[in-house]
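Reminder: ligand-aware prediction takes two inputs, not one.
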Amino acid sequence: MIVLRPYQSTIAPNMNYTSPVKICCIGAGYVGGPTMAMIAKQCPDIQVHVVDLNQARIDRWNSDELPVYEPGLDEVVKEARGRNLTFSTQVDAAISEANIIFIAVNTPTKSFGIGAGRAANLEFIEKCARQIAKCSKGHKLVVEKSTLPVRTAEAVKRILSSAANGATFDVLSNPEFLAEGTAVQDLLHPDRVLIGGESSEAVERLAQVYGRWISRERILTTNLWSSELSKLAANAFLAQRVSSINAISALCEATGADVDEVAKAIGTDSRIGSKFLKSSVGFGGSCFQKDILNLVYLCEHFGLREVAQYWEQVVVMNDYQKRRFSERIVRTMFNTVSDKKIGIWGFAFKKDTNDTRESAAIHVCRDLLEERARLAIYDPRVPESQIREELQLAFADSVGGLSDKHKKLIETNVTVVGDAYAAANEAHAIAVLTEWDEFKSVDSRRILEDMRRPAFVFDGRNILDRNKLVEQGFEVHSIGRPSK
Ligand SMILES: NC(=O)c1ccc[n+]([C@@H]2O[C@H](COP(=O)([O-])OP(=O)(O)OC[C@H]3O[C@@H](n4cnc5c(N)ncnc54)[C@H](O)[C@@H]3O)[C@@H](O)[C@H]2O)c1
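Here is what comes back for the chain with nicotinamide-adenine-dinucleotide:
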């Protein structure tokens, strides 16, 4: 049986699906906000209502300072907001008025109970399903936009089947493949849109929405379970490439090979390809680690021990890469960074986003603070409150408690500054932890004048012009390259 097929519009719409589309999206986060803004922009006749429990987040979606930083997103939101795009906390009303309901809530790794540290916490998904069951009448299409373990739709369907008002539902899986930092372009020109479902009419209904701006060949339909699994598998494959090149970077440092040269040499093999072969201090973001751990948990659940171990190694390698970087800083700086100022350039998990979830910077900063370094942190898009909150979480114990010692350490040893120069001023070292473009064009002579000697640079993203910096008098340590 062929389960992956380009979408073909051959099915006559079911009686249930003749009324105009009205969309509700539960969850106004990094996925729900941009995705719905794009649907509203491309389909001016479709009402799109995005709801969230978080009032502060909704207020920001309704303001000039959106809660999500993405290049080009302001324009998309401004075009549709107030026309056919609304943001509110009126979850019940939005569910009851819509005929297509997207669930785009967070699915973090469980931190307690069975499967803690691996399984996905589906509490928010279940709450959404119960609320949809409670507030619905007639027939509705429920779309899983969140990334979910395989067979979650089964549970969602069971909960929905208990709807009190005789409402009926079709459940679809429509995972989101956008990448933060390029979300607008990814939504405008996706490699593919994936829709998994059992009812051809329901799949048709959703495909018609995307079909307004995405060519039919790029709309793929599968069964529900293939769609749910494909999202986890795609993230696992992407993260695996990063861990693979990072593993090679350690060998490069030991042997004198240059990881960027190796990546180019292997990436030009068309069977391998050049994308996602950039070695770094380690991958971050809310998805890769969470989704791989979720995959590992699923494999263990189904008794596939070797498969679980295989994928888990991708996360193990990433942890090693982050730890290796901070250890290298300490070792290079004469085995002590205590009371030394280190300028931290970048805190977001990648450039062009304000998202710091699982950012490699958090781990490196925590390790350096444990060594009593003084950190001056600069990120162009991440506010001070968010940086401090992430560092507090990094030091928190398993039940979220923060010791007085660590609280004081963060208070006294961390300053958050307004530009890259302030971070480098009087510093013993600079650590580049996010690949923001502005770091490539700083006035390095000015930086050098302001720094202590030796002026160490640890480039965790390999973005700086290493030869130029060395010529000017810096001591540069990059990922996967012999030190200069
Ligand atoms: N961030 C990404 O790049 C990305 C990409 C693809 C897929 N995903 C997946 O999409 C999902 C959402 O991710 P995100 O990054 O947007 O998360 P997020 O944390 O930014 O947003 C989720 C939002 O859902 C809200 N919420 C939770 N429960 C709710 C409820 N019962 N009613 C109303 N609102 C509720 C939260 O308040 C939050 O604002 C996750 O499953 C994630 O794995 C994320």
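The chain has 18 helices and 15 strands. The CA atoms of residues 376 and 415 lie 5 Å apart. We will return to this case in the review session.
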